[in-house]
Amino acid sequence: MKVAYVLNTYPLPSHSFIRREIAALERRGVEVLRLAMRRPPGDPPDPQDRAEAARTEYVLDRGASGLALDLLRAATAAPGRFLAALRLALRCGRASPRGVLRHLVYLAEAAHVARRCAQQGVRHMHAHFGTNSATVAMLANVLGGLSYSFTVHGPEEFDAPAALSLGEKLDRAAFAVGVSQFGRSQLRRWAAFETWPRLHVVHCAIEPGAFSDPAPLPEGPLRLVSIGRFHEQKGQMLLVEAMARLRATHPEAHLTLVGDGEMRPMIEAEIAAQGLKDAVTLTGWLPERGVLAELNAAHVLVLPSFAEGLPMVIMEAMAAARPVISTYVAGIPELVQPGRTGWLVPAGDAAALADAVAEAAEAPRAALAAMGQAGRDRVLARHDADTEAAKLAALFKAAIG
Fold this sequence. Notes:
Elements: E1 2-9, H1 16-27, E2 31-38, H2 47-54, E3 57-58, H3 63-77, H4 79-95, H5 99-120, E4 124-128, H6 132-144, E5 147-152, H7 156-159, H8 166-172, E6 175-178, H9 181-190, E7 199-201, E8 223-227, H10 236-246, E9 254-258, H11 264-273, E10 280-284, H12 288-297, E11 300-302, H13 312-319, E12 324-327, E13 342-345, H14 350-362, H15 365-382, H16 385-400
Parallel strand pairs: 1-2, 1-4, 2-3, 4-5, 5-6, 6-7, 8-9, 8-11, 9-10, 11-12, 12-13
């Protein structure tokens, strides 16, 4: 069985779950043609991502003339299919703030994807995210006739489903996947009722072998770690506020922020304004080994997100036997169990977040260790990469027929 993965910018540090999913499929004997629209900016910091980039074909490397040639080939080879794809691109473009011109670019990308799939004997495409990569897969389906599917993560797709033509993508797909029950429920809001049987849950997953020997909790005062892109939806600014609230009662608590992004200057400014330079460390992006080292150095992962899908970093923290403090958002309550594997607080509530951190600081280390072990048991049972890849491979096989 040979499939194509249709991706936007790949690989990125925050998308390591896609690399793990592809590797697990390949262990099952599935051949995967990696077709990404664009290269990641700069050299990926993780050596595994650098190796993955070397295995990936980049559509926009074709340049404008190459993509125009692909469009011409598609139009002359199957005029009826081309006109149907053109009409679909125009309709989606008129519904989108990105406009018609951008969707004509997607059509050109789809022409190249369809041609490469035909050359490589690929009969099914799978996209990650219901955004432009799924648009390209849908248009390639119309141009070339091969089936497609896609995984929806959220929250971006749930913020603008009409602008993304999400319902049309779902109804045309052989199947679609949510990464949580919550995610699938949102897909059902936009898909036709007849499409519901083709909507499935396949979790993003971890490689258990990478967490085979969890480090014991460190000694000393509470150490927190938060991992993720510096973006409004991740709630790092609220976390800085919570740390400021804790200063009076738990001045020894320390927070490490792993990641980077457009909000870094604002976060740094707020840390300085609150006088927390000694209490908060920013590391920038780290390779997987560096992320694991920061998890091992912490007692608790804290992720105060306002919007999510189902964060990989929570799975990784639980696999590393670390309790989690997070929010009642999207698929997170399906994984984090309050009082058993960590704490859940209302999103946007700095006081509740500070209270949860204070409880973690005051909890006996044995209680934190027990929470960590319960979380580890839960995530290993629910989010094993090979188990989830088997589900996806079965869906591919059924789609190909």
